Amino acid sequence: MNEDFLRRAIELARSAREGGDPPFGSLLVGPDGAVLAEERNSSITDSDITAHPELKLARWAARELDPDTAAGTTMYTSCQPCGMCQGAIARSGLGRVVFALSTEQLLGLKSGGDFPVVPTEGPALFEEAKAAVDGYYD
User: Fold this and answer.
1) The pLDDT value given to residue 34
2) CDD domains given for it (predicted)?
């Protein structure tokens, strides 16, 4: 772990907040220790609820890095990635994530607590859904 990279992620979070966005920032460090890319949250200024810095970096890495390089990277981020971002990070093949603030710690700082939970139902129509997917991952 490199505390200087974490401090940079926190600086990016401050910058996001100063720019009118939620206070989250991240950077991606390559296998050689060089910073490959930096992002900050822009979900308000971009009118895009998915404009989290971790997701933007995961998408960048999936487009720009070969799998071996991606696997050797470390994402440093000001806060533990949310579920959406965790999924993107896993699918992009990044090597690891180091965060400064945990989700539990973040929720302790929010006056409203956790985000609302959307009710879900399922599984349903297994055979029909299976037919669309079966064999794709072979």
Assistant:
1) 97
2) nucleoside_deaminase
pLDDT for position 65: 97
How many domains, in total, are found in the chain? 1
| Catalytic residue status for 127 | no
Residue 108 located in a structural domain: yes
pLDDT classification of 74: cutoffs 50, 70, 90: very high
Q: Where in the sequence is the domain holding 104, given as residue range(s)?
A: 3-113
Q: What is the CATH number of the domain that holds 99?
A: 3.40.140.10
127 belongs to a structural domain: no
For residue 45, the one-letter residue type is T
pLDDT tens column, 93-121: 999 999 999 999 998 888 776 678 889 99
Residues 59-69: pLDDT tens digits? 999 999 999 99
Residue 129 within a domain:
no
Q: How do beta strands 25-29 and 74-79 pair?
A: antiparallel
